[in-house]
Specification:
The protein is an alpha+beta fold. The protein is built from six helices and six strands.
Length: 194
């Protein structure tokens, strides 16, 4: 995906024509919208876990002393996995909840990106489903978007530049590091801050 991002950003880096639907800012807006979708997925899953635990009579999601609750959590996560895998309604709710936060980014007509709304909806649904399923693994796979939490050895620059000696304030995450606890599963991709 790093080569794909590099090609996409590289093709549009020097476009200053505001009528160009593929100008760099329009391409980056689409990528930054996915950060909001990932955040909405995390919030939705946490809310559903808390709601289920409350129904079962547990007062807090973070009460580690209760081993019964921990065993129940594995069953809850399995049920949620099945729900997110088989039910588009869960995914559509996430997209709707995040839409208000990123309306200007996700409104591709306003961003002049020539995608039909059905294409956007299907792509966003697939991304949300995959990320929700990653979050609901027995050992959750999370997206690390915060540069201060991203070790530079696990980041690639979209222009394939060396970032080891760059200030993190000069960079912006295009695609997060995917991690399973402390183990990095997939490297992140950054670009120069605009």
């Amino acid at each position: 995906y790093q080569k794909l991002l590099s090609q996409a950003v590289g093709m549009h880096k020097h476009s200053e024509n505001m009528n160009d639907p593929f100008r760099l800012s329009a391409v980056l807006n689409v990528l930054f919208a996915f950060q909001k979708l990932f955040d909405a997925c995390e919030k939705d899953i946490e809310k559903r876990k808390i709601d289920i635990l409350k129904i079962l009579g547990f007062s807090s999601l973070y009460n580690d002393a209760n081993t019964c609750k921990q065993e129940q959590m594995l069953d809850i996560m399995k049920l949620l996995r099945d729900g997110y895998y088989h039910n588009d309604l869960c995914i559509c709710e996430i997209i709707k909840s995040s839409y208000k936060a990123v309306k200007t980014v996700l409104d591709f007509q306003q961003a002049d990106v020539p995608l039909r709304s059905t294409d956007l909806k299907q792509f966003a649904q697939k991304c949300c489903r995959v990320f929700c399923l990653l979050l609901l693994q027995d050992s959750p796979v999370t997206a690390v978007w915060n540069l201060s939490e991203c070790p530079p050895q696990y980041l690639d620059h979209v222009d394939q530049q060396d970032i080891m000696y760059r200030k993190k304030t000069e960079l912006r995450v295009l695609w997060p590091i995917l991690a399973d606890g402390k183990n990095v599963i997939e490297r992140g991709v950054v670009c120069d801050e605009m």
